Amino acid sequence: MSAPETILIETRAGVRHVTLNRPETRNAMSLAMVDELLAALKSAESDGVRAIVLKGAGGHFCSGGDVKDMGAAYAGPGPDGQDPAAKVNAQFGHLCKAYAETGLPVIVVLEGAVMGGGFGLACVADVALARETALFRLPETGLGLVPAQIAPFLVERLGYSEARRLAVTGGKIDALGALRLRLVHGVHEGEDAMNTALESVLTDIRKGAPDAIAQTKRLMRRARLHDAGSLIDDAAKVFAAAVRSEEGAEGLSAFIEKRPAKWVQG
What we know:
Layout: E1 7-12, E2 15-20, H1 31-47, E3 51-56, H2 67-73, H3 84-101, E4 106-110, E5 113-115, H4 117-124, E6 127-131, E7 135-137, H5 151-158, H6 160-169, E8 172-174, H7 175-180, E9 186-188, H8 191-206, H9 210-223, H10 232-244, H11 246-256, H12 262-265
Parallel strand pairs: 2-3, 3-4, 4-6, 5-7, 6-9
Antiparallel strand pairs: 1-2, 7-8
């Protein structure tokens, strides 16, 4: 991918770190940022990294969509006759879906403003870690707007009742409140504590076989929407394929030989 303008990308120890980098707007999500985040994920998937970490620059994660930036796109009908507002909104939906469905583990580091679309990104992550400064909010209805693309992910993460309450009231949640709702999986005070927690999570992820993690995530997504009985045969096929795979052979050998598997060493 070409050099991005709204995000920073760094790879350390096999992990792709992506930083939303518009601190002057509290990392409000512009159209360019949406496209660059999609490209960053695609690149991470093709590069074979072990996980992707999302965070924000300047003490904030993301203050939601950049209303000024997107306003220009809403000015009038596009040359293709499509409603530009719908087109822009759908692109953000594709972003959320891509991060929700990737086989890579996705970890978000949340601090300061976590609003609107940033709230949505927090909901699609596999692991969400919050600083004590994190403040979550859904401001859309107060702006006469709708949290359209993030609604399914809010319901999935928070449950129907809590998602509806927050969306209707535009309610604010602090870090401990987010932990009580299981929106986040840990709250850590100070940068050092957060870095330690993040490294602990990444260490645990590295113990898992990459394809096994991807297949597990894929199966769990299906399990949300299907009766357990309807998945028995397909789940058995997934398990059998894993047993016969290179990862399966290596994992069983490592267990018998009482040594770390090769992917742990990598």
